[in-house]
Amino acid sequence: MAKKVRAVLTLQLNAGKATPAPPVGTRLGGYGIALVNFVKEYNERSSAMVGQIIPVQITIFEDRSYTFILKTPPAADMLRKAAGVTKGSGTPNMKDGGTITAAQLREIAQTKLKDLNAYDMETAMRIVAGTARSMGITIQGRF
Amino acid sequence: MKWIELSVEADREAVEAISELFAKYGYNAGVAIEESIIPDEDEEDKYELDLDRPVMVSTWLPNDERAEEVRELIAQHLWHLGQMRYISPLQVTISDEEDWANAWKEHYHVLRVGRHIVIRPSWREYTAEPGDVSIELDPGMAFGTGLHPTTRLCLAALEDYVTAGMSVLDLGTGSGILAIAAAKLGAATVLAIDNDPVAVKSANENAALNGVVASQIRIAEGTLAAAGNVQFDLVVANIIAKVIIELAHDLAAALLPDGTLIVSGIIEDKADSVALALAAAGLHNRERRHEGDWVALVAQR
Q1: For residue A13, what is the nearest residue in chain B, using CA coordinates?
Q2: How confident is residue A117, by pLDDT bands cut at 50, 70 and 90?
Q3: For the segment B256-299, what is each residue's pLDDT rounded down to a tens digit?
Q4: How far apart are CA A101 and CA A99, in angstroms?
Q5: Whether the predicted pLDDT of A88 surpasses 60
Q6: In whole angstroms, what is the distance from residue B175 CA to residue B181 CA?
Q7: Quick one: which of A105, B189, B244, B279 is 20 to 30 A from B22 by CA?
Q8: Per CATH, the architecture of B2-101 is what?
């Protein structure tokens, strides 16, 4: 039976290690969702990816039921791996936060494309490049 | 406990960068992203994202002495990001844990599970019918409300397998719901173990709420090792597939000859792997129960 969608939201959580604390509690609690149930389901489904941030997109219906899908890790995580740095620079555009090639940028954009809603490859690359810049990561070559 | 919520509305192309910033400073690296939707007029459960509206990005900080300093740092970084894309000023709101942690309770009612089990939230009235096995519960922040399919699958299995005088182990007890059910179904002794202190506290409170005495239920913080070398007539573990697979041998070793193992917290796609692990540990798979995407397995030594 069709149910009316009340909200769609994405939470970035530690795979396999979510708890009812924020952001889960603060975002889902208000919708009347039993937090521990969501946490158990997320942890079960993301248990193979422990150590990564795995965003989850939750669709909440009017009757407080919900469905969710796991998404690809944030672009920032992939950028850090590509640049071989553990943390990006603290200050956007200023300090050196590492370097990636245009080919690596394209690859990350390709992976992220399905999660960057309704965007084409060019826009996806621009978004990922923007994230890289904000982390102080330099992109070598033209893209 | 009080929490500070930091939110901005932003151009969707800036969302990844803001999320990265928020994850760096927010509690548990947690970030929430909320997009406006346009509901489909023909099909209620369908929608499209409203790409013309800005996206809301939020993170949370515990309201402690460092909060102001962190908020200031985040605001500075946002200013830099704001040079590239539209980002609204940082909105700061303070919320009390009570407000969101208990909101779901409003929708939690008396619940019948299996043939005779009745779960009664401690704040609800209920009149028992003959033969009811009623469990009073305030799960707090621990898992095990009876609302989740895995809990219901385990409760129904306990109802079928627990007989008077049995010794039972409940591994990953959460709210204590399964341990209390086992006791009420006639188990002589129940050991309930959880590695989360929040769960141990909740299980103790619920055992007291149900008047189950300490001589019948013992609740311990720890892992399966806390059971020592004692063996049980029945072991129930509603955890997750990965953990059950890792513990298969230890779970089997905790069973008396002919003892019964009930495991759940398993999604459909992983049920076969769990059954294989149980068989490899020398157990005989007896039953597979389903509710929605979730599975409970019953095996025997």
Answers
A1: B30
A2: low
A3: 999 999 999 999 999 999 999 999 999 999 999 999 999 999 99
A4: 7
A5: no
A6: 11
A7: A105
A8: 2-Layer Sandwich (3.30)
Domains of chain A: 5-70 (3.30.1550.10), 75-140 (1.10.10.250)
Chain A residues within 8 A of B244 when measuring between CB atoms: none
Burial degree of B291 (CB within 10 A; 0-12, 13-18, 19+): middle
Q: What is the pLDDT of residue A89?
A: 47
Q: Is a pLDDT exceeding 80 seen at residue B218?
A: yes
Q: Determine the CATH number of domain B106-300.
A: 3.40.50.150
Could you tell me which chain B residue has the CA closest to the CA of A30?
A: B100
Q: Which amino acid belongs to residue B227?
A: A
Q: Please give the Cα distance from A52 to B23 (Å, whole number).
A: 12
Q: Inter-chain contact B143–A36, Cβ cutoff 8 Å?
A: yes
Residue B80 confidence (pLDDT) above 50: yes
Nearest residue on chain A to B265, alpha-carbon basis: A44
Of A3, A64, A93, the CB nearest to B45: A3
Query: Tokens 């409760």 label which residue?
Result: B155
CB atoms within 10 A of CB A110: 13
Verify whether the Cβ–Cβ distance B97 to A74 is below 8 Å: no
Which of A9-18, A88-97, B74-83, B169-178 comes out lowest in average pLDDT?
Answer: A88-97
Separation in Å, CA of B59 to nearest CA in chain A: 7
